[in-house]
Write a sequence for this structure.
């Protein structure tokens, strides 16, 4: 890793007094022309949106007895910031109830944001202001973070990755494609549909795990598979049994979050020392502050912008994990191309990518980084500076 990657260039940016003038906000994308603010330098628009899933989505904590459960839609909130000079920044909150956040709580938080306290020229100062409004609310803060970096990098005439001092190599970064918990016959169909993607991620923790892996293997005999238990196994002995079964497959790369994040670290260390496959923290690793425990208990971590509170938080979480000698993955929720593209800018800091949330929905309202055959690319991104995202549907 080059020394430039340890720098945090956004920290050197300073705001100006002019950019901190007081003002009001606008909160309705449907009526932007009707709201005119002559005082505020930055305007904020919020928009709720329901992402529609191509397949009903179930994971260990949402699957119900018999294998039913899950959801057909995922509620997100989009944020758009516009500066006085017309520079815009787009962000997205995809809150998860697992972290006691949802679209309503994110929207309420974002409505409290005074845009006069936000500045593309002072991203850290703007984020500090958000922390003064209320603790937690990481998805909502993450949305503002993405929008701020979008605007800041646009003003610098660079893509966000370059603005952060990172590179992005085309034809190098590959995302896995996730297969949610379902009945074996549906798993088979999903895996066939996912044929173009070279790596799969199978959700487990339901009643049909063994049949589901068998259904996957019936149509994808040797394809690399990552497994995500989403805290589904409640004892260390059960977790070890399940991981030993998965290791016997021969093509499982690692297992995400085998046990609850609340598990006694002694049990996780017991499991880490015996597991035949690397185990990766997801629900256990929200941000860099969790690194000490995760370095002891896991081989790898899954970093998500939604958990870490945005781009700077995710950058720090990735760097902390690398410094601790852990493997890293950048993951996602069910989310649009806004959040997925934001995460893709950090690809250089990750050993693995799991950036498929936008591939699992049918009504992504934005265009950004692409994932043809699983290869994350900015080559067709509609904008070469900032986030690289614009409104539009992929045909
Ligand atoms: Mg996970």
């Amino acid at each position: 890793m080059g020394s430039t990657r340890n720098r945090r260039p956004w920290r050197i940016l300073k705001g100006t007094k002019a950019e901190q003038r007081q003002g009001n906000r606008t909160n309705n994308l449907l009526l932007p022309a009707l709201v005119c603010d002559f005082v505020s330098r930055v305007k904020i628009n919020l928009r709720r949106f329901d992402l529609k899933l191509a397949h009903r989505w179930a994971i260990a904590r949402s699957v119900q007895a018999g294998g039913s459960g899950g959801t057909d839609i995922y509620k997100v909130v989009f944020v758009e910031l516009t500066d006085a000079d017309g520079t815009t920044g787009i962000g997205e909150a995809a809150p998860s109830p697992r972290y006691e956040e949802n679209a309503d709580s994110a929207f309420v938080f974002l409505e409290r944001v005074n845009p006069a306290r936000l500045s593309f020229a002072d991203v850290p100062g703007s984020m500090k202001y958000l922390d003064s409004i209320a603790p937690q609310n990481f998805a909502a803060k993450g949305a503002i973070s993405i929008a701020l970096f979008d605007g800041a990098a646009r003003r610098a005439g660079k893509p966000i990755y370059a603005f952060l001092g990172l590179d992005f190599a085309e034809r190098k970064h590959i995302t896995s494609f996730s297969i949610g918990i379902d009945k074996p016959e549906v798993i088979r169909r999903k895996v066939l549909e996912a044929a173009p993607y070279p790596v799969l991620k199978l959700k487990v923790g339901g009643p049909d795990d063994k049949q589901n892996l068998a259904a996957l293997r019936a149509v994808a005999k040797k394809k690399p598979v990552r497994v995500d238990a989403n805290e589904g196994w409640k004892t260390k002995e059960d977790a070890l049994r399940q991981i030993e079964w998965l290791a016997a497959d021969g093509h499982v790369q690692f297992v995400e979050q085998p046990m609850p994040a609340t598990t006694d670290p002694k049990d996780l260390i017991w499991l880490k020392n015996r597991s035949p496959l690397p185990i990766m923290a997801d629900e256990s690793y929200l941000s860099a502050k969790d690194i000490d425990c995760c370095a002891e208990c896991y081989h790898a971590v899954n970093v998500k912008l939604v958990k870490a509170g945005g781009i700077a938080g995710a950058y720090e979480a990735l760097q902390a994990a690398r410094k601790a000698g852990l493997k890293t993955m950048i993951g996602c929720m069910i989310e649009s191309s806004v959040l997925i593209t934001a995460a893709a800018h950090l690809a250089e800091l990750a050993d693995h990518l799991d950036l498929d949330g936008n591939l699992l929905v049918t009504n992504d309202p934005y265009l950004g980084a692409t994932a043809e055959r699983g290869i994350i690319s900015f080559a067709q991104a509609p904008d070469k500076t900032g986030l690289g995202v614009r409104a539009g549907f992929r045909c």
Summary: The pocket of magnesium ion is lined by residues 228, 230, 256-257, 282, 302, 331 (CB under 6 Å). The CA atoms of residues 105 and 137 lie 8 Å apart. The chain has two domains: 3-163, 177-391. Residues 177-391 form a domain with the TIM Barrel fold (CATH 3.20.20.120).
